[in-house]
Each structure stands twice: as C-alpha cells, then as structure tokens.
C-alpha cells in the first residue's frame, strides 16, 4: 500500500494527466447525448451573459447595416401582407382577420454567437425558455432557413446550424414540390446537399429549394437556396443536388424562431397512426 | 481565522489565465478567416507559464482553462483534452526548444532567441491542434480531415501567436 502511495506521489503528474484526460474524453462523449452537462454549453448563464455583453458592444458598430436589412425585410413583409389581404378580399368579398387561425407563431431573436468552421456548428441566441423557446423549434432569417433549436436555458438557446453534419431537413423544389433531404457534407459554408430527390422531379440548375413542410419544425415554402449542380449517383433512382444557400451563414444577426402551435396535435396523430 | 493573501506569482498566473481565456473567447473565436480558419491560442498560457512553477499545477490549470473555453465555444471538452496533453508534454518541448531541463531551471522567465521561442510555440500549437481535431473527428480512418484541419488552422494560429509574442517582447524592451 505504501509503495502504491509512493508511486502515485512520485508519478502524480502522469496520474493527474490520465485522470483529467479521462474526465475530458468522458465529457466529450457524453456531451453528444441529450443529458449532457448544461454548463458545458454557450447557452449556460455565465457564458451566455458574456456573449450578450460582447454582442451589445458590437451592436453599436453594426446598427447601420442591421437597419438596412430590417427595412428591406419590413418592406417585403408589408408587400406580402398587402398582397394576401387584397387577394383574400377579392375572393371572399370581405377582409378576414388572419390572427384567429395561426398555426405558426414567429418571435425575433438575435444571434450572439455563431460558428461555421466545425463539422458540427452551433449558434447561440439571446432568447430562451422564459421567452417560450423550446427544443426543436425552427429558426430562420430574412433570407431563409438557419437551423433547429437544440437546447435552452432560461435566457439563451443553442441552435443546430444548417452547417451541422448531423442535421437533416425536409426540403422541396419550389416549382414541382418534389422533396428530398437537405444535409451538409462539411465541404463549404455556402453549399448544402439535397439527397433522395426522385428522378421524376426534372430538376434544373437555378431551381429554388424551399422547406418541404413534411416535418413539424418548419412551415412549407421557406427559402433555402438554389440548385447549383446536380447528378444521379450510379444505380440510384434519386438525384443528388448541390444547393447554394441564400443565407450567408457566417454573417447572421437577426433571426426568427418559429413555434408550431399545432405541433403536439400533429405529432400525436402521426404516432397514433403509426401504431396501427 | 486569517485569510492568507495570494502571493504575486499566483496573481500573475490568475491574470494570465483570464487574459488568455478572454483573448480566445471574445476575440479569436469571433475571427474566421475566409470562413474556414480560426486562431486557437490557448497554449499561450503554457507558453508564458513560469518555468519554475509546479508541473502538476500547470497540467490542472491547462485542463481548467480548456474546459472553461469549451463552455464558451461549444467545443465539448476538446480544448480541455488538448490542453492537458500539451501541458503534460511541455517539459519535453522546453528541452527540445531551449535544451534545458525544467527541474534544474531557476529562472521563471524563458531566456532564448526568437528561433527557440518560435519552435517552442510551434510544438505547443501542433500538439494542441492535433489532439483537438483528432478528438473532434474521433475517427482515425478520417485522417485526411484531421490533416486538412491542421493545415488550415495551424499556420494561422502560429502567425497570430508569433505576432503577439513579438508585440509583447517589443513592449518589454
């Protein structure tokens, strides 16, 4: 026993290194699971607050650019709103209060931390559980899809970026509505890949890709990107297409978190149906 | 009960710990050159760690520094693991770069020329980056990805680290 103790003391640096490596690797492995340590995330209270402080300082220098983007977006939204109200009024002969039937509620948030250089990139937002953000909500910007909420703390949330190799999003061709899965192959930050798109879809370079709406996360029709190249892998019945993203994922600021108010109903119905 | 005040060497260590952490988390983590490369310079803590200070403490503090940085940058515990290995190998790197044995070194500051400083920094960065990306990919069959990440990040980290060392050595002259 004494010899063992003496050995441990003599070799304390080696013992300490092995112990710390075991802890570090253990945390790395368990961090991939939903039960991962909350504090080991940028949505934790301390790191979240520091990033918020840094973001607040940076805001003063970006106000002009942000204002321009917001006004552009406002203009587009007003245009769409007026157009839809006008069309409805024409069809029904009256104005309709569209607030009474809302499947999707949109709340704005700001990106306070973003990464694009990893294989599994995450984004941190300045809104959390107190603002009603929960896991699996969709996140978009004025230009298109950004990612899906992964976890939340009281005031912050982390989002699995579109540039995360484990994320797969239901996406469709805007014109023909044929759908496939959008994934990121970790090659470049402005391109994703659309796989499992049926041969019949007659894809063309320049076609717009939007969310397919087959999942309960995103409403259908949110822009994602444009087809820049496509091919049919050997012996496959499906297209594989390279998609140039509308969003500059390295320059995100103002985003919107989308809540599907009918999600529980939809998921529960789908589960019941699958059970039969 | 009297609380023992911290001695100056502990204060200097604490100051460097915070300084390197903030530099990495608030400045370098926000820099992404051409959307692909980021300077990763936590090893500056080991570079400036006093040579006459406790070896085991340097390993523990490096692990802690890595872990705190990881909590900011959502990098699991990759920095913690990489920093622990770099801290463990640091005495060997000191011998390689400066030809000194830490056990018999009395001066807390490293005496050496620019080439020796650069070599020491390179060895620390290479170890940190190699372990970081290997643990991130966690699959040796994808050695090409690890190599690609090393080629992208290591030169940038080295360049920025080297410039910082130059800057501080100029200030001290």
CATH superfamily of the largest domain in chain A: Rod shape-determining protein MreC, domain 1
Average pLDDT across residues of chain A? 81
Number of domains of chain A: 2
Count of distinct strands of chain A: 12
What does this molecule look like?
The complex is a heterodimer of chains A (276) and B (173). By secondary structure, chain A is α+β, with helices and mostly antiparallel strands. Chain A folds into two domains: 40-165 and 253-260, Rod shape-determining protein MreC, domain 1 (Thrombin, subunit H, Beta Barrel); 169-245, Rod shape-determining protein MreC, domain 2 (Thrombin, subunit H), CATH 2.40.10.350. In chain A, 32% of the residues lie in helices and 30% in strands. Chain A is built from four helices and twelve strands. Chain A has helices spanning 2-10, 12-30, 45-92, 263-275, and strands at residues 104-114, 120-125, 138-140, 145-152, 157-164, 169-173, 179-183, 191-198, 208-211, 223-231, 238-245, 254-260. Chain A has a six-stranded antiparallel barrel. A six-stranded antiparallel beta barrel of chain A has the order 6-7-8-11-10-9. In chain A, β4 and β5 (157-164) form a beta hairpin. Chain A starts with a helix and ends with a helix. Chain B has 173 residues and is an all-alpha fold. Chain B has one domain (8-172). Chain B is 68% helix and 0% strand. Chain B contains six helices and no strands. Chain B has helices at residues 8-27, 44-47, 55-73, 78-98, 114-137, 143-172. In chain B, α4 packs antiparallel against α5 (114-137) and α5 (114-137) runs antiparallel to α6 (143-172). The relative contact order of chain B is 0.13. Classes of the chains: A alpha+beta (276), B mainly alpha (173).
């Amino acid at each position: 026993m004494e010899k063992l103790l003496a050995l441990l003391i003599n070799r304390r640096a080696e013992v300490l290194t092995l112990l710390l490596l075991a802890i570090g690797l253990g945390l790395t492995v368990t961090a991939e699971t939903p039960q991962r340590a909350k504090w080991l995330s940028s949505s934790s209270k301390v790191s979240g607050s520091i990033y918020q402080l840094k973001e607040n300082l940076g805001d003063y220098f970006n106000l002009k650019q942000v204002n321009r983007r917001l006004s552009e977006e406002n203009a587009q939204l007003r245009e769409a709103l007026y157009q839809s109200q006008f069309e409805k009024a024409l069809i029904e002969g009256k104005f309709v209060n569209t607030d009474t039937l809302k499947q999707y509620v949109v709340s704005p948030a700001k990106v306070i931390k973003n990464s694009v250089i990893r294989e599994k990139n995450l984004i941190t937002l300045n809104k959390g559980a107190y603002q009603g953000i929960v896991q699996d909500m969709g996140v978009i910007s004025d230009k298109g899809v950004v990612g899906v909420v992964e976890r939340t703390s009281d005031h912050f949330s982390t989002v699995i970026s579109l540039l995360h190799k484990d994320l797969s999003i239901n996406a469709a061709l805007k014109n023909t509505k044929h759908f496939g899965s959008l994934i990121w192959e970790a090659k470049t930050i402005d391109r994703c890949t659309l796989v499992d798109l049926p041969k019949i879809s007659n894809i063309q370079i320049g076609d717009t890709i939007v969310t397919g709406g087959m999942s309960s996360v995103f409403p259908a029709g949110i822009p994602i990107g444009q087809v820049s190249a496509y091919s049919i892998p050997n012996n496959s019945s499906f297209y594989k297409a390279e998609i140039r993203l509308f969003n500059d994922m390295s320059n995100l600021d103002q985003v919107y978190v989308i809540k599907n108010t009918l999600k529980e109903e939809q998921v529960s119905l789908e589960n019941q149906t699958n059970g039969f | 009960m009297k609380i023992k005040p911290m001695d100056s060497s502990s204060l200097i260590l604490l100051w460097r710990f915070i300084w390197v952490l903030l530099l990495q988390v608030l400045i370098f983590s926000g820099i992404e050159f051409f959307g692909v490369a980021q300077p990763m310079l936590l090893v500056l803590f080991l570079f400036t760690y006093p040579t006459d200070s406790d070896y085991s403490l340097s390993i523990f503090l490096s692990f802690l520094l890595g872990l705190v940085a990881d909590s900011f940058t959502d990098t699991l515990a990759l920095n913690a693991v990489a920093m622990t290995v770099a801290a463990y190998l640091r005495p060997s790197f000191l011998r390689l770069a400066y030809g000194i044995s830490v056990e018999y070194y009395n001066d807390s500051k490293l005496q050496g020329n620019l080439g020796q400083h650069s070599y020491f920094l390179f060895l620390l960065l290479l170890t940190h980056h190699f372990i970081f990306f290997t643990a991130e990919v966690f699959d040796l069959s994808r050695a090409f990805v690890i190599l690609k990440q090393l080629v992208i990040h290591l030169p940038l980290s080295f360049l920025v680290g080297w410039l910082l060392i130059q800057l501080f050595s100029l200030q001290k002259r």
